[in-house]
Automatic annotation (TrEMBL):
This is Phytoene desaturase. It comes from the Bacteria. GO terms for molecular function: oxidoreductase activity. It holds the Pfam family Amino_oxidase. Residues 11-503 form the Amine oxidase domain. Keywords: Carotenoid biosynthesis, Oxidoreductase. Pathway: Carotenoid biosynthesis. Belongs to the carotenoid/retinoid oxidoreductase family. GO terms for biological process: carotenoid biosynthetic process.
Amino acid sequence: MSETVVIGGGVAGLASAILAADQGHQVTLLEKNPQVGGRAGLHEEAGFAFDTGPSWYLMPQVFERFFASVGEDIAAHLDLVTLDPGYRVSDRGLLDSAPQFTVDVPHGYAGVRALFEQLEPGVGPALDAYVESARDTHDLALEHFLYTRFSSLREFTSPQVARRAHRLPRFLLSPLNTMVSRTVAHPLLRQILGYPAVFLGTEPRRAPSLFHLMSYLDLVDGVRYPRGGMYAIVRALTRLARARGVDIRTSTQVISLQLEGRTIAEVVARTVPDPTSGGSELEIFPAENVIAACDLHHLDTALLPPGRRTRSVRGWGKRDPGIGAVTLLLGVDRKLDALEHHNLFFTRDWDANFDQIFVDGQLPEPASAYVCAPSRTDDTVAPLGCENLFVLIPAPASAHLTGARLGDYASRVIDSLGERVGVPDLESHLLVKKVTGPGDFTTQFNAWRGTALGPANTLFQSAMFRYPVRAPHVDNLVHAGAFAAPGVGLPMCLISAHNAVEAL
C-alpha cells in the first residue's frame, strides 16, 4: 500500500485524498489551519454561519462526476436548490451615490433572452449565437481539455477538436470584451456577459474569449446552492475522506521536504496539538507519493530547493497572481428585502475600475462589488429575522493589504451598501463584522501576493501553460488545486484532483 501525503486540506486536497485512498493508497492529509476547506472556509459567530470563500455552485456535472467516480450519489450528500432569479445586477458600484438601475437574471434561457430583448430590442439572435457558441465550447472543454494533463498531442487531434480548430485562434487571441461588444451594445448586458472573467482571476480585457463558455453556466445551466452553505461541500468531502481511511491532520504545517535525489522521501511538519497551549512539535511523514494541493508559489520558494523547483523566483516574478479581494462578513439584525441571494454591483466605468486594481494597484473607488445573502434562501445560516452577508470587493493582490488596515474603507463600503438596501445606518445593525484583505490570505493560506483565487486564467496561464500536473524535477510529486491546470474555481479543483491522482 503506497504511502501518499497530501499537502493542503482545501477542496483539491480533500478530493485528491479521496481519490487516492479509493485506489488503495494509505493517505495522510496535512492542513496548516485548524479546519479543512482552504479558501472554501467557514466562520461561525453569534448564530451566523458564513461561507468565507466560494459561493457560486456552477458546473453541477463536475460535482456529480466526482462523487460518482468513488461510488457515491451526490444527492445523498448535498441538498441542492436552484436559484430563481439566479442573481441581481445593478449598474452602479458601491461608493457611488448615483441612482442605480437593477435587473434580475432569471433561471432558464427563455427568461434570460426575454430580459436581453427588453433592454436591447432585436438582440435575441446575436445572444442565441453567443450562447450556442458558449455551450459548444463548454462541452468541448469538458470532454477534451479539462480532464487532461496535456501530456500528449493526441489530446488535440480528436475529430471533435479538429472540426473546431478554425475557431480556436480567435478564441485564444481575441479578448473576451471584444467578443462581448460584438454581441450586445447595452452596457449592463455587456457586463452580464463579461463579469465571469473576474471568476477567473482577471478581467474581460485580459481573459481570452475562449472563456465566453462561462456564460453557458449561469445563463443556461443555472445557479444552484447547497443548503447549509458551500461548506456543506467540504463537510461531504471530509466524510468521504474519513470513510476511506484518510488520516486528516489539521493544525499541521509542512515546513520542509526531505529529498533523496529526485524523490521526496519525507515530509516534515510542525504540529500544534493544542492551539491554546502555544506548544509545537515536529513530525516526519514518510512518503512514496506527494500531492501538493497548496499554494504552489509557496511550494517552490519555501519547500523545494532551487534545483527541484518548477519555477524559479525570477520566473514567478513574471507571472500574474490574479485578483485580490477585500471581504466583509456581516451579520445583520434585520432582513434586507432589497437583496437577492447573489447580487452584483457594477461600476459604470468598468475599465477605470479594473485599471485601478490591475494597473494602479489601488483599492477601487467607486468599486464593483459582489454581495451574497444566503439567508435569503437558507434559514439555517443566520438567526431568525437576521441576514447573513458576504461582501467581496475585487482588489489588488497585495500582501500588505490586511483587514486591520482596511477599517475606514470597510466602513464606507458598509455605509454605501446600507444606502442601496434602504438601511442608511447599516453599521449600527451589525451583530457580526469581520473584514479581511489580501494580506490575510497570505497569512492564512500562504497565498502568493494575497491572491484570492489563484493565478489569473489569462492566455499564457491557462491550459498547457498553467502549472503542470506532474513536477518536472521531482519524480514523486504532483500538483492539484487552483494553481494547477485546469485553473481556479471549485469545479476546476475537483478536476485537478482527478488529474493529479491519475498522474501518480
